[in-house]
Each structure stands twice: as C-alpha cells, then as structure tokens.
Amino acid sequence: LDIITKNHAAGNILIVTHGVTLKALMSQFSPEGFIEFWKKPVVEQASISKIVISPEGSSEIALYGDTKHFSV
Predict the structure, then answer these.
(1) Contact between residue 39 and residue 16 where contact means Cβ atoms under 8 Å apart
(2) How far apart are CA 11 and CA 30, in angstroms?
(3) Residues with Cβ < 8 Å from 15, sequence gap 6 or more?
(4) Under 8 Å between Cβ of 62 and 52
(5) Cα angle, residue 44 at apex, residues 38 and 48 outer, rounded to 5°
(6) Quick check: 17 and 4 in contact, CB under 8 A?
(7) Rounded distance between C-alpha atoms, residue 7 and residue 4, angstroms
(8) Which of 24, 39, 40, 47 is deepest in the core (most CB within 10 A)?
(9) Residue 52: left (phi > 0), alpha (psi -120 to 50), or beta?
(10) According to the 3-state scheme, what is the secondary structure of 8-67?
C-alpha cells in the first residue's frame, strides 16, 4: 500500500478487494489501527470506502463501507 500511494501520489487509486482484506487496509488509516479490527462491522459487498491522503501525507477516512448507491 505504501508503494502504491507513493507511486501515484498525484492521482486517484482504485483498489478492489474482499471484506477482510478491506478491513485490514482501512485499519492502517484508522486512529486505533488494528486494535479494534474484529469489533468493526463487516463491510457490505459492493460498498465504497474512500481514503483521502493529503500532499503532506496525512490521511482521513472519508467513506467506510458506504452503500448509498444501492438505493439509486
């Protein structure tokens, strides 16, 4: 993940994965890290999660398992 974000810092990155792998990736960006890994809810299939990484390297979880597009 570090290599991908460094090599594509100026653009958008799309990663498609399964639920537990997604939870692991998102844990890297959450304040509690992996401590609360199994306490977080299962991420719905076809949901959208979004991380915003600033040019300085700070990150923010903007969406986590969002399913609003299901009702469109």
Answers:
(1) no
(2) 22
(3) 4, 25
(4) yes
(5) 105
(6) no
(7) 5
(8) 47
(9) beta
(10) CCCCCCCCCCCHHHHHHHHHHHCCCCCCCHHHCCCCCCCCEEEEEECCCCCEEEEEEEEC
Contact indicator for 42, 52 with CB cutoff of 8 Å: no
pLDDT of 56 reads: 86
**pLDDT tens readout for residues 11-58:** 899 999 988 888 888 888 888 888 888 888 778 889 999 999 988 888
Say what the pLDDT of residue 47 is.
92
pTM to 2 decimal places: 0.82
Q: Which residues contact 29 (CB under 8 A, 6 or more apart)?
A: 51, 59, 60, 61
